[in-house]
Amino acid sequence: MTTVRHPFPHRLASVAAALLALGAAQAHAALPAGLAANDLEAMTSVELRERIARGATTVIVPIGGTEQNGAHMLLGKHNVRAHVLADRIADALGNAIVAPTVAYVPEGSIQPPAAHMKYTGTISVPDAVFEGLLEATARSFKQHGFRDVVFLGDHGGYQADLTQVAERLNREWARDPACRAHAPLAYYRVTQTAYVAELKKHGVSDAELGSHAGLADTALALAVDPALVRTDKLAGPYPAGVTGNPKRATAELGELGTRLVVETTVAAIRKETQAPR
What we know:
This protein is α/β, with parallel strands linked by helices.
């Protein structure tokens, strides 16, 4: 008597295996809230090592700051903005990983309070502590095999610190140029130059622009994440610590700036990282 083997158990086994593989792929692709595919924090150690081996040898260190922004904008504005824009820049570069955002930066004397430290919620650290943190961070990434460490600062007050840190590291690594540090000022400068020029073309006045938490600053925040802005507070009154008038700020105006930041910074990073070692 001939035994007939039924095909269905084999088919069921194949379907089950496919479903398990799909579930594993979905689990692998899942990202924690607030993180993107290029974020170091969204990877395991093994996954990061594999990404570096496949050519992701540039690491971007986004630097924000925790400071007052009046009654209409959140204390974490710089941190969110730096992270989101760093992710967009990494996407455009194609070979970059984004490090955790540095949220503790120099913001003025704590005692007696100066600058933004006069306002509730601002966190300040000494320049030496800040620079030491960045140096140790860069050395860590060099140890793991990155070839280029890029510091991107969203706040104007510490741009000189970033330059000094990059210069010190490159002197330290001069005999072993497998890794270099970079602090492209284009990221911040474009928000003070080309972005301002674009806003003026759209009818924004100098009085509205402001230097902190005004229209230019607020529009950038709206473009990155509308949740950063309390829109019901845009009409004022504006407490001390706000310069300019953010009333007419919109995400559309801010997108003029975010586009410039990404395009300009990507070009600057490519130029620096492709230079002879």
